[in-house]
Specification:
The structure holds 2 protein chains of 2 kinds. By secondary structure, chain A is an all-beta fold. Chain A contains no helices and 11 strands. In chain A, 38% of the residues are buried. In chain B, strands 2, 4, 5, 6, 8, 9 and 10 form a 7-stranded mixed sheet that branches. Chain B has a 3-stranded antiparallel sheet with strand order 1-3-7, with no helix packed on it. The termini of chain B are far apart. In chain B, 35% of the residues are buried. By secondary structure, chain B is mainly β. Classes of the chains: A mainly beta, B mainly beta.
Chain lengths: 116, 108
């Protein structure tokens, strides 16, 4: 059974950094690309980033380029999202998702609140 | 960048009625790399349809997807109370992957 568990969210001041983690189980993690998707309070879904299975290929939405970095540790079945220079516009629930027939499996999300 | 526009914004129907949700892309999505997701309040999104018309595992057959190119449709034949949710389309043809703005389905 596929299981994705995000962690690392919380309240952070503007301009600071935060690192999210997503622990995966129930599938062959090292052969799947992984995504991060976010959802601001009361808003729709926004795709954030994707990382290929071997970590060699990554893409970001324009609003986070240069500030966010997606990475993975295939030995630990974990994908990360390093978020720097955070602003109020980054306040959202962040979901990780497995690349499988689209985004076939999602975690329950972790809330990031950027506030002074 | 491929922009997805969903309509209507809100759909209010009686139980048993047919719901038709539209997703229009700003450019052709080749290979029908389009998915539909359901999100109920307080929950993570769930994959319903992939490759425009294939149902994901465990999804009831009242949900169906169709379309190609720039016009795609999600149909719920026989709306049930548990189908109250927001539905999003998403293209995974090219980066940046994008979602539509969503259609909220309510029961009268």
């Amino acid at each position: 059974q596929v299981h994705l568990v995000e962690s690392g969210g919380g309240v952070v001041q503007p301009g600071r950094s935060l690192r999210l983690s997503c622990a995966a189980s129930g599938f062959n993690f090292s052969t799947n690309a992984m995504h991060w998707v976010r959802q601001a309070p009361g808003k729709g879904l926004e795709w954030v980033a994707v990382l290929s299975s071997d970590g060699s290929n990554k893409h970001y939405t324009d609003s986070v380029k240069g500030r966010f970095t997606i990475s993975r540790d295939n030995a630990k079945n974990t994908v990360f999202l390093q978020m720097n220079s955070l602003g109020a516009e980054d306040t959202a629930v962040y979901y990780c998702a497995r690349d499988y027939n689209g985004l076939g499996y999602w975690g329950q999300g972790t809330l990031v609140t950027v506030s002074s | 960048e491929i922009v997805l526009t969903q309509s209507p914004g809100t759909l209010s129907l009686s139980p048993g009625e047919r719901a038709t949700l539209s997703c229009r892309a700003s450019q052709s999505i080749r290979s029908t790399y389009l998915a539909w997701y359901q999100q109920k309040p307080g929950q993570a999104p769930r994959l319903l349809i992939y490759d425009a018309s294939s149902r994901a595992t465990g999804i009831p057959d009242r949900f169906s997807g169709s379309g190609s190119g720039t016009d795609f449709t999600l149909t719920i034949s026989g709306l049930e109370p548990e189908d109250v949710a927001v539905y999003y389309c998403q293209q995974y043809y090219k980066s940046p992957l994008g979602f539509g703005g969503g259609t909220k389905v309510a029961i009268k």
